[in-house]
Write a structure and sequence with these properties.
This protein is an alpha/beta fold. It is 44% helix and 14% strand.
């Protein structure tokens, strides 16, 4: 498998099936700001609530090939081998990338177990060999990587823009600054909101006071 981060914002993802597996797929798509069309004679209560809120589109019917029109990605998540095979065949014929639940060998792509900390995404994949292992590693990541990593990503982004704007610095000098910013204690400082220590560290790196956008930095955590 070739690992990528795919931009599905506003793009149509068609999910065939309305059970718990389809529900998990849809929640992941929505987390990525994708648009969802679910096709199934029946759906879960959670999905029905999303339909009622006009968050997703529901075609209350059995699957047919026309349901794939306009799709960017296709997910087959039914308990019918016949329907799964039909979706696979139709998606391939249309040149669409398809994910077939419980059949990793037939999938064009896998959906990794992921956690999000702001703009930082950590994903775990086993190429479909063991979702249980992926879930176990995900739990470890959730424990080890808290919301302070969201703040770290924001801080690094803000400072990156400033460094790149420094025309007097060479590429190598900018690279060294990036490395110096990420002090070993930075995560602890963010976790415990030691803004004064962060400020002092940045001043020592830049050789001058650094005005931080605290509103942007602190809104990442409650």
């Amino acid at each position: 498998m070739y690992s990528i981060c795919l931009n599905i914002s506003g793009k149509l993802c068609v999910v065939i099936g309305g059970g718990r597996v389809a529900e998990r797929k849809i929640q992941g798509i929505l987390a990525g700001s994708g648009s969802v069309r679910v096709v199934s004679p029946a759906i879960t209560t959670t999905l029905y609530d999303l339909v009622s809120q006009k968050v997703i589109e529901w075609r209350e019917k059995p699957y047919s090939v026309t349901d794939l029109e306009g799709a960017f990605l296709v997910f087959a998540a039914t308990d019918s081998h016949q329907v799964q095979s039909a979706v696979l065949q139709d998606a391939r014929a249309a040149g669409l990338l398809v994910n077939i639940a419980d059949n990793p060998a037939a999938c064009d792509f896998q959906v990794p177990a992921s956690i999000r900390r702001g703009d930082l995404t950590l994903s775990v994949a086993t190429q479909g060999k063991s979702p249980a292992v992926a879930a176990m590693v995900k739990r470890r990541l959730e424990h080890d990587f808290g919301d302070e990593y969201a703040q770290l990503t924001v801080l690094a982004s803000l400072l990156r823009d400033r460094i790149l704007a420094e025309d007097a610095l060479s590429h190598e000098e900018k690279k060294i600054l990036f490395q110096k910013i990420l002090h070993d204690d930075m995560i602890d400082w963010l976790r415990h909101r030691h803004w004064d220590r962060i400020q002092q560290h940045l001043e020592s790196v830049f050789g001058r006071p650094v005005d931080l956008d605290m509103e942007t930095l602190t809104k990442e955590t409650p």
